[in-house]
Write a structure and sequence with these properties.
It is a single chain. This protein has 278 residues and is α/β, with parallel strands linked by helices. The chain has 2 domains: 5-68, Helicase, Ruva Protein, domain 3 (Orthogonal Bundle), CATH 1.10.8; 89-276, 3-Layer(aba) Sandwich (Rossmann fold), CATH 3.40.50. 40% of the residues lie in helices and 19% in strands. It is built from 12 helices and 9 strands. It has helices at 5-18, 24-36, 40-44, 53-66, 72-76, 100-106, 123-131, 144-157, 198-201, 206-209, 217-229, 245-254, and strands spanning 78-81, 84-87, 113-117, 136-141, 163-167, 178-183, 230-239, 260-264, 270-276. The longest helix has 14 residues, at 5-18. The model has no long low-confidence stretch (mean pLDDT 95).
Length: 278
């Protein structure tokens, strides 16, 4: 039985909706464009085309795994962030639009060196380096597999010659000082993990989501070592959970940082702690 692009989108939308997927129409379009290896504009231009069986089989497969709440980005292997498309997989945190708040703030002033703690896919540091062709970067992560993904992204974006990747537990393997330090550390409290969407809870690396306990241990660790690596006049930006601003502010204040600001994301939620070298 033949199906057009429009027929397949309708059928996939119904199946995804029945599985409890939010935004099933959007996901159906993204998945079919992925299977057909075309962009969204090309998909819309071919709505009346009859699809070959190979495409229908491929679409059935990706709809089935999406119905299990596997993230779309894990199925397609990529996620748009800032001005680039990043490779993503189950070894790295899926970069979110809210994290672009950190990138935008960091780019408001010049920098020559940047350190990204817990880089994951590399989305933050690679986006920053792409915008500042003179800058050099160091990206750390405790996960060797995450660093492999970040290296591939650096090559795709064209900044591989300006960034070093180090397997490190926060500052453990870091030397020198940096004009800019950024991080999106794990910050979800252990008690909140079960309330996460299954796309996050069941598919993304828990190491990148939660440090356990109250979710604040990464900030405590970073605050203890930050002065040694933040250059005089340097700036630092850390993503936070939307209810953590007071607690994280207190952690860095106790560590001797006094010029702190809380920056909201596009939804108006507290999302980034910004601070300057004391």
């Amino acid at each position: 039985m033949s199906e057009t692009v429009a027929d397949t989108l309708t059928r996939a939308t119904m199946m995804l909706g029945a599985a409890g997927i939010e935004g099933p129409e959007r996901d159906a379009r993204v998945l079919l464009a992925h299977v057909m290896d075309i962009d969204q504009a090309g998909l819309m231009a071919r709505m009346n085309d009859t699809l070959p069986q190979s495409v229908l089989y491929g679409m059935d497969r990706v709809v089935a795994v999406r119905s299990l709440h596997q993230p779309v980005s894990h199925i397609t292997g990529k996620r748009g962030f800032w001005n680039h498309e990043f490779l993503v997989n189950s070894d790295v945190l899926d970069p979110r639009p809210d994290t672009e708040t950190l990138v935008a703030a960091a780019l408001e002033q010049p920098f020559n060196t940047v350190l990204d703690l817990g880089t994951g896919s590399g989305a933050i540091v690679l986006s920053l380096l792409a915008e500042r062709p003179q800058a050099m970067g160091v990206a750390t992560d405790i996960s060797a597999k995450a660093l492999d993904t970040a290296r591939r992204n650096a090559g795709r974006i064209g900044v591989a010659d300006r960034v070093q990747f180090k397997e490190s537990d926060w500052f453990e393997s870091v030397s020198g000082q940096f004009d800019l330090i950024v991080s999106n550390p794990p910050y979800i409290a252990d008690s909140e993990m079960q309330s996460l969407a299954p796309e996050v809870r069941d598919w993304e690396p828990h190491l990148a989501l939660t440090p356990g306990g109250d979710g604040l241990s990464a900030y405590r660790h970073i605050a203890q070592g930050l002065k040694a690596v933040l250059a005089p006049g340097g700036r630092a930006f850390f993503e936070i959970g939307y209810r953590q601003a007071i607690d994280v502010n207190e952690i860095f204040t106790k560590a001797g940082f006094t010029q702190l600001k809380v920056l909201p994301d596009m939804s108006g939620h507290d999302r980034v702690i910004a601070l300057n070298a004391p």
